[in-house]
Every structure is written in C-alpha cells, then in structure tokens.
Amino acid sequence: MYLLCVYISTVCGCSRLSATRDSMPAAEILAEFRGGEIRESDLPRAEIFKAEYALYQTKLARINEAIEKKFLEHAAQKRGMSVEEFLKREVTSHVSITDEEVKKEHLKFVESVKDNPRFKNLSEQEKEEKALARLGLKPNFGKSFEVLVKEKFRGLISKRREREEVQRLIKASGLKFYLTEPEPPVYDIPTDGHPTLGPAKAPVTLVVFSDFQCPFCAKAAPALKKLIDTYPGKVRLVFRNYPLPMHKDAQRAAETAVHAHEQGKFWEYHDLLFADQNNLEAGDLKRYAARLGLDVRQFDQALRSRKYEVKVKSDIEEGSKYRIAGTPAIYINGQPRRPRTGDYFADLSPYVEKALQDGKVTQKVAPVSPSGVLAEIDGIPITEEDLPQGAFYEQEERLYQARLEQTKKLLEQRLVALAAQKRGISPDSLLYHREIDTTPMPQELKTQYEAFQGYVSGNPRLMHMGEEERKKEILKLLKIDSSPSRTFEDAVMQKLSEIVRRRKLEQGRPGLMTRLMGEFKGRIYLEEPRPPVYDIATNGYPALGSERASVTIVEFADFQCPFCQQAVQTLNQVVARYADRVRVVFRHFPLPSHTYAQKAHEAAECANEQGKFWAYHDFLFANQGALGVEDLKRYAASLGLDTDRFNQCLNTGKYAEKVKKDVEDGTKYHVRGTPTFFINGTPQRIQTFEQFAWHITGGKEGKPVPSALLAAAGGG
Question: 20 to 30 Å CA-CA from 231: which of 323, 446, 665, 700?
C-alpha cells in the first residue's frame, strides 16, 4: 500500500512497460501468449467503467473551466473591456438576491447546527464558534452570529447565481462538445415483485435504488415520476430499497414501505415518507399508515416483528452487485446513470429519449476532431493546450491500473487452464498442489489459531455470551455453516486451514505467473500513460546534496504527517549514498487537517533564515506530538538560534505567504497528499530507498515501484 497523508486523494506514480511502443500490436490486443490473446472486449465492463467515468468527469470539469475562461476573455475583448468589467456589467448587475432567500439558508444552517450531535454538550458560544468554522469564518465581536452567517450565505448565493448567469451566456453562444461519455455496463436487474409505476411492457425501465432518509432521493423522486408523465406509456419506474447505514431510521422506513406495498399503497406511502424525512420514527410511520387507511394492526405487527428485514437486506445485497456507492442509484434499461447537475429530470431525459430511439441507452456524441479540438465556444476552439498540465494524469493512471489488473486476472486464468491441460490435471490441482505448495504447516496453523484466539478473547461482543451462544456467533463471524457431523473445534480448524491455504496461494501467485509467462511466451501490451513533467522551482528553497546533481528530488511535505516523518530517514540514506548525483529540495505542503502544521512550516522558514533549516526540520519530525507555538520557540532555543529574532519572525507570520505559495504551487502540480515526490519534475509513487535507487541509477540498482513490477510481469 502507498502510504501518505491525504489532502484529497493520492498522487499516482509511473512505471516501466514490458513491451516497447514499437513492438506493440493493435491497441485492441492487451496481452498475448502462445495459444491465445486478451482483447479490450474481454475485460469485464463493470470493473473498468468506474475508472473510465472518473476520467471522463475530470476531463469534463477541466474543459468546462477552460470554456468559461475563454468565453469571458473573448466576450470582454469584443466589448473592449476587461474581464472584471464584463462580469460586473453583464453578470453581477443581472443577479438579485432577496432577504427571504438569505433568511431561508440561515435558518436551514441554524437547524443543522442544532441537530448536530457533536455540538450537544457545548455552550452556546462554543456552538457558534464551531458553526462559524464550518463556514470558514471566525467570531467577529463587531458583528453577531446571525449577521456573519447571513453575510456568508448572501455571498455564496451571489457567487452561485453569477456562475449560473455565466453558464446561461455560454449556452447562448453556441457551445459544442466533442467529448464522448464512456458506455456503462448493462446489468440484468430483477424487477418482478417490486413496486412499479407504468406499463410492464414499456420500452424503457428506470430502476431506482433509494433511501427514504436521503435528501437527494427525495429530490429525485418527483423527477422520476415526471419522466413517466412526460413519456406516457413508454417508461416504467421500479423501486428498490437501499437504506444507508448512516441513516438510522431508513432501514425501518424501508421495511414498512414493503408492507405498504403488500397492502397496495406503496407509492402513496413513498410520497409521505419523502415529504417528511425528519420524522421517520416508529410512531411517525404508524401515523402515516393510519392516514392512508392501511390495516394498522397488521402494520404494527410487521413493524415490531421486523417481518420484512430480510427482504430489504436482499435489496441491499442485490444493489451491491451493481456497484452502488450512494443513493439514489438510477439505472436506465440496466445501465447506471448519474445526474451531472442535480436537476434529475433534465439530466436523465436525454438518456430516456435515446433509449426510446434504439432500445438501449447510449450517448454517442461527435468524436474528438482530428485537430485535437475538445470543444468550441462562439467559434473559438478549446484544445489540450488550454488545460492545466497533467490535469488528467491521476485518473488516466487509475484507469490504466484497472485495465492492467483485469488483464492480469484474465491472463492468469487462461495460462493456468493451458498449463493444467498440458500437464493433464485440473486447474485447482495445479494451483494448490503442483505449482504452489499450499499445505498448512503445523507452525502456520498454530500461529493462525493464536491470532484467532486473540481476536475472540478481545471481542467485547463475545465476552458476556454463554458458551453455546458464543460458539454460534464465532461460526457466524467466520462464515462457517454449522453441521451436526463435525465438532465446533473441527469446523474452526478447518476454516483456519482454508485461510492459511488461501494466503499461501496468494503469496505463490507472482512466482507462478512469472514461470507461466515464460513457458507460454506471454506479453502484456498495456501502455501506461506518460506522466507530466513539471518545471518546479527549486532555487532559494532548502536543499541537500550537490547543486550539479543530475537528479533533483523535490519533496512536498507536512511536518505533522507521520508518513513524511518515515521518509526522513529514507531521504537521508539517499543523499548519503548518492551525494554526487542527487539534490533533495524541500517544499512546504501543510494539510488543512493538521492543526499545527502551518505554523510549524513558518517556523522552519524562520530557522532557515538563520541557516538552520535542516536541523530544525529534524527537530520537528522528531517531536510531531508537540508542535504548538511555544514548542516551536523552545526548539529554536535548543538549536542556539537568535530567539528574539526567531520569535519576532514567527509571531508576525513573516513567512505565512511563502508557505501558502508552496501549497498553491503543489496544488498546481496536482499534489493531493504528503509526502509527494517529483524526480526531475515527474511525480513518482515512491516510499523506499530501493525505489529511489532504481530511479536514480536508471534501473541498475534498487527495485522499481510496485506498479512497475506489475507491468513487468508481462515478460520480455
């Protein structure tokens, strides 16, 4: 696992390919071996789509940003004014906000604070401070809490309206997109026996997995019904339950909705639940049932007995097969569709219309033009050059890894089948006996049993149970079917033996694949995306190593990040071993989640102006648990710094802007967590000395990063 403190998400690295670009076959072929090949069409669509869609969304967002920038520049130039003047005259002047709108947002926010369990035991002043912090505000003794919150929301509403107005102007200017949305997988989702609106033979079926306590589901519900009304007789809506664990009343609401369905009042009950999502406790549900004229006695009995608990859980298990990550999860003729803007009706209508045209949902738009134009606005082209450098690299790397993982899985299956056929044995015999010895050794079983005993003795749920109840719970935890033909002890030991065998199989798999790839002349042809090369400023920043070094390592780090602390020893080892070839440059990247990091980085710069950056750097990492302002001053004194000068520097925030500038630079280079390393401007996913050595020596020493090892499994 790649360990780092996360800002948003991890930064991906690069690796080497097993086949050169010149030797690659047609792009459709991802791998080949003696006796067969793996093609793009062989990969499971559901496993690849998530990464494809993430890349598509990132491209869409970056292109939209470029469109807005180009449009504003062009529109302002045509009118002979600056962008700021254009925005003021053509956008801001058209935006109006009422006091009622601001009041509504203020009240909604106040209610959310009141209902927040984290604020329950706080004083009113503490609550207000925490609430303001959520909005990025601090108490202002010249203004009341209400005034501060209302001013904030007035500003937020204004920005939102201005953005909406800009988007309206863009659409009116003849926007053309040349980006193709990836085709989702098609799932065969059962619909029989579930609540349905619309004719059974409608050409378009919408299936929604929903949660009665989810506000987005409540917003989607009327839009889905509107689609049925808009296309009468052509659209069918099917409801499936998917209560989320975070919503405490959702499971019970879903169970009672199943009962309402049995009494023929599902959709009426559905509407009542979504209309009053804050009141879904048992008493509320009974009240809704009575209002609809349901058999209240039967309803109450079903509620108390949890009669429909298993049925709802069955929906959840079913939904999990379709990669549901949240609610509402909407499928149109079996294909997952996500609204882009939050306007469910507007976002889903094109998919429905396309499905009515050809029976399946696709959204093919014009391909990217040969000239590399991604979009056009008012006749102005948007090309790759208009987008930030490396804007898609992280998502492209994730897509590559997803495709590589699935290619390797298919390749292993086919090579194992070929090898087993050649040896005249079954694939299982080849895996578990012939090629990999998975027989559990007595010491391995003993170690596994001791680990199991430690887990059982430390489990609070099991401590207060009777012996028989405890045994049943253990069998359930280990997913063991109870059988009268074997004792509890035999069942547990058999399960632990299976665990050891599976672990030994996984440990032996890489070696087996290397042997089989050689035996059957296997090669993997996936082309890893080229990482960007950034021109990162290094002059004037703290550095170790030779100024004439051929290799420059830039580290973006956070003094409060434990993974950065682990990297200190590794980097010292790198400099000691390759002092003549390497230069290590430090850049600041304090994370918002680390309370003391910002001031610690400012203090390091104060130490730097007295020539003691690296000594202070080591002090901070050695004392990560104590980085308060007084601690920072104490460390300066320990190093013999001029404390008056240091304290003045720290107290005035002399280097706050410099640290902030480093964070801005890091963000521009798509730094998402710490530590992040760049070698000669290229982002690398590196942790160990061996991995640094591999890069520094061009592969002559050390070991490549794990992703490179995976790609190299292709042989050659």
Answer: 323
